[in-house]
Amino acid sequence: MNAAGRLSLYGAGVLVAFGGVFGIAAAVVPDSAVANWVATASDSSMADHAGMGSDDTAETVTIPGVSLSGYGYELGPVTAPTVVGEPDELRFQILDVTGTPLTAYETSHEKDLHLIAVRTDGTGFRHVHPTLDEATGTWSTPWKWADAGTYRVYADFVPDVADGPDKVTLTRTVEVAGEFTPTPAMTTSTTSEVDGYTVTLDGNLTAETSSELTLSITRDGEPVTTLQPYLGAFGHLVALRDGDLAYLHVHAEGETPKDGDTAGPDIRFAAEAPTAGRYLLYLDFQVDRQIHTAQFVVDAGHGTNGTGTDDTHSDTGDDH
Ligand SMILES: [Cu+2]
User: Fold this and answer.
1) Which CATH number is 152's domain given?
2) Shared-domain flag, residues 309 and 229
């Protein structure tokens, strides 16, 4: 069974077991203990962390960013330059179940659609905001590939329709011809040098458990305290799972900053890996009106036994 199928079962299983526990608990367990179980179960819900609607989606919950269709939408064919170095446009439409291009989008993090592109080996990460032609539903942005290879393109958006999904992430693969330069196999790294900044990552990513990651930014050994808000947060973290490049967009903790606010050198994120394994992390941050992207590779461990999440899952397994 694929991962998505397993997760759907987990989700359904948690609900089922939960009903049972709840019924018994009402009779023999103090209310406070019931509340703890509730909190644990909702914290471990994949749907919440992936930003998907958690109601009535038990059958359709998937890990975001591995499919070209989902939640009633499809990422249409992506038109882009097919060779390295040729400037042109990248264009696509989002289609609904009838094949009609979607033209109504809800603004999320100050944009109606976020486009991420990355080569399948994790290099060449880009995060841009295309422009919508509302007459045709076509999104476009100037585009040029710097390197040949196979790329994954992700569209991250919220349809502005009644009872629509909270968040949709769809993906397609684009091939770019040219002389291909393979990169060495990835090794874990928690320090990133970018544009004169040094960014270090502290904290551990754990499967199915929310953990805090702290990213600290310095320049010439000095803490950077002049981070500016970018798209409604002091930092945006995209995590891609090595292997299928499943996509996770994590936002910085804390209140939404206002224009003129500054922060640093630390940015904190609450992140949850859907499974154990290796993840590629990309942090977008802004200083002096310039966006920088720091890159990390981390291994997520299995959830710790006895913290509730794993136990809940094995308990639900017995119910099937
Ligand atoms: Cu964006």
Assistant:
1) 2.60.40.10
2) yes
The model's confidence at residue 157, banded by pLDDT at 50, 70 and 90, is very high
The answer to whether 274 and 241 are in contact (CB under 8 A) is yes
Task: Give me ligand 1 centre to Cα 115, in Å.
Answer: 6
Give the distance (Å) from ligand 1 centre to CA of residue 39: 31
Say yes or no: 226 and 284 in one domain: yes
Given phi > 0 = left and psi -120 to 50 = alpha, else beta, which region is 277?
Answer: left
**138/258 same-domain check:** no
What is the domain extent for residue 158?
Answer: 68-176
Q: Is 193 exposed, middle or buried (0-12, 13-18, 19+ CB in 10 A)?
A: exposed
Q: Give the other-Cβ count within 10 Å of 124's Cβ.
A: 16
Total residue count of the chain as it appears in this document: 320
State in Å: Cα 120 to ligand 1 middle. Answer: 19
Which residues neighbour ligand 1 (ion) by CB within 5 Å? 114
Residue type, 15: L
Ligand 1 centre from 284 Cα, in Å? 9
Domains identified in the chain, total number: 2
**Through-space distance between the first and last CA atoms of the chain, rounded to whole angstroms:** 15
Same domain, 171 and 233: no
Q: What's the predicted TM-score (pTM) here?
A: 0.76
Same domain, 195 and 280: yes
pLDDT in tens, 91-150: 999 999 999 999 999 999 899 999 999 999 999 999 999 999 999 999 999 999 999 999
The overall average pLDDT reported for the chain is: 80
Question: How far, in Å, from the CA of 128 to the mean position of ligand 1?
Answer: 6
Residue 195 shares a structural domain with residue 302: yes
198 lies in the same domain as 298: yes
